[in-house]
Structures are given as structure tokens and as C-alpha cells.
């Protein structure tokens, strides 16, 4: 599978970030020359998806280290700033830990060695995506009709994607016959990004609103569900985009296999269960702006968690770059 979509490109000493907030309407790029610009791009969802956030942050550290007056302290401050951008996805913290080690323990030119490590993290994710796609496809039978959630493709990673990477490879091999993408309210990563990415890759896709999933599953038109993950605890509890838990519960009810595809950089070995996963709450505006006039009404409160936690017992299998894991889960 070749992918023409990339969430960012390192070029001429800057990180060019495809502004995903503007997709699918416009393809505009943010030219990040410092860590603060990368941090803001992460906070505002210009770049999003757990692996892509981690890699972008790695490049953010490189930008700080390449600054003409960079010191170990100034780069460590940039790392702390990047840590405060989004709390749930674990890849961010994994890569920032790797970068901290490189800053404090590495030898030689600070900027050069930090940039090299950021590029290595990027390359590792490209390979992990390919490996996950190959393992994931081995689960498929013929004529699969798959449902996916949020955006887990090239836009969300350094490579071809996690769950969507499996689907793309399955489609290119003629094993996946139909793809269903959920809208994924309130930010519509499914409707805006997955649909755009599928169109770019020449994959026909059927879009549905999130509240249509049960009805679709009831028709028997879906053979499997593939989702990505933002952080996975040792018992397999999986945080992913808000709404994933509903999908997992429905999959159980309709006896449809529910697969989670994620690189090992998403697994947080310090957490025994998903209870301790910090769940990001985002601004009410994301929900309010979807209904004109709503923001002016008095007495309307909004709850806007960006992620939920699916218990490991609802997951049929995990697809990682190291292979497939089946229950009981204990990492
Ligand atoms: O808020 P987002 O768009 O960063 O959330 C993204 C997701 O929840 C994805 O499903 C997850 O990061 C896996 S993507 C490879």
C-alpha cells in the first residue's frame, strides 16, 4: 500500500504540518519553526491521532534543540511544554521520555542528535504500521465488510495507519469489500478525515452518523470492527475516541469481532487497568458550534470528554507490530 497522505514533513529545518482542522475543504500547511508552534498544533488538533502526536512532539523537541541558543535546560523546558498538550494518548509521553534521555545522556551535537532520534521514532512508526497491517490482514476472511471509527490512517500516524492501515491493505488485496466510517462527533474525524483519506487512496467508503451504528450492525452488513487506541493498560483496557465503548458493546451484542490495532508505543505498562487513564475533556465549543444559536441559550451545560475506556474483555484481539494478542490480556 502506498500512501500519498502525510500529516507532517520535516523539510529545510522546519516541521510542515498539514492542518487537519481545515480538511477536507482545504489543504493548508503550518510551518513550525519552534516547539511552541508544534505544541499549539497538537492542542488545537491541527495534528492529532496518538502516534502522529508523539512523532510531531519529537520533532518539536528537535526544533528546540536546533535553536542557536539551545541548552539542555531550554530543551527540557520545551519537553515539559509538549507534555502539557494532550493528556490521554500515551505515544506522546513515550516519545518525550525517549527524547529526554537523548537530551540528557546523549553525546555530540545536541541539535543533530535530537533530530536524528526524532526521525528514528518516525521511521519506527512507519515500520510498525506496515507490520500491523500485515498481521491484521491475516485475521481476515474473504469479502469482509468492515466498520471503523475516528481516523486511524496515515493522518493519525507516521505511516499508513493502525486500524485504517489494516483496512487499506485488506482492500488492496481484494479481501475487504466494503468500508463503513462513522462520523465521530463532535470533531468529525471520521466524516472529515477518514473519508478524505479513503478518497485519496481510492477506497470507496460509506459514511454514517454515530447513532446509526446499531441499526447497521442489526442488518448483518458488517463482518468486523477495527479501531485504533490512544492508551492501553496492562489488562487490555483501551482508551480511544469517545464513542468507541458504545461500538464495543454493540459488537458484543451482535457477535461481531472487535479488533484494536495499536503499536506497542501506545501500551502504558505502568497502568494495571484503564481506570487510571487520564481522560481529556475538551472545550464545550466543539459541541455548541455544531448547532447555530445554541451557545446563546442560558443554562445549557456541556460534557465533552474526548476519549472513553473500553474494557479489555470486550476486545476480540489486539493487533500490534509484534503480532496478534488474544484474551486473556495481560501485558
Ligand atoms: O482526538 P484525536 O483525533 O487525536 O483522537 C484520535 C483517536 O482517538 C484515534 O482513534 C487514536 O489516536 C488511534 S489513531 C492511530
Can you tell me the overall shape?
globular
Q: End-to-end distance, in Å?
A: 30 Å
Helix content: 25-40%
Category from helices, strands and their pairing: alpha/beta
| Bound molecule kinds, no repeats | 5-S-methyl-1-O-phosphono-5-thio-D-ribulose
Task: Report the portion of residues in β strands.
Answer: 15-25%
**SSE series:** EEEHHHHHEHEHEHEEEHEHEEE
In the predicted model, the low-confidence regions spanning at least 5 consecutive residues are none
Which strands sit side by side, in order, in the main sheet?
6-5-4-7-10-12-13
Mind describing the biggest β-sheet?
A: 7 strands, mixed
Roughly how many Å is the radius of gyration? 19 Å
What is the residue-averaged pLDDT?
96
Total helix count? 10
The count of β-strands is: 13
Characterize the structure shown.
By secondary structure, the protein is α/β, with parallel strands linked by helices. It is 37% helix and 16% strand. The protein has ten helices and 13 strands. The chain has a seven-stranded mixed β-sheet with strand order 6-5-4-7-10-12-13, sandwiched between helices. It has a three-stranded antiparallel β-sheet with strand order 1-2-3, covered by helices on one side. Strands 8-9-11 form a three-stranded antiparallel β-sheet, with helices on one face. A hairpin with a 2-residue loop joins strand 1 (8-11) and strand 2 (14-18). Helix 2 (50-66) runs parallel beside helix 4 and helix 5 crosses helix 6. The radius of gyration is 19 Å and the shape is globular. Bound molecules: 5-S-methyl-1-O-phosphono-5-thio-D-ribulose (MRU). 5-S-methyl-1-O-phosphono-5-thio-D-ribulose binds at residues 48-51, 89, 150, 152, 156-157, 162, 189, 228-230, 240-241, 306.
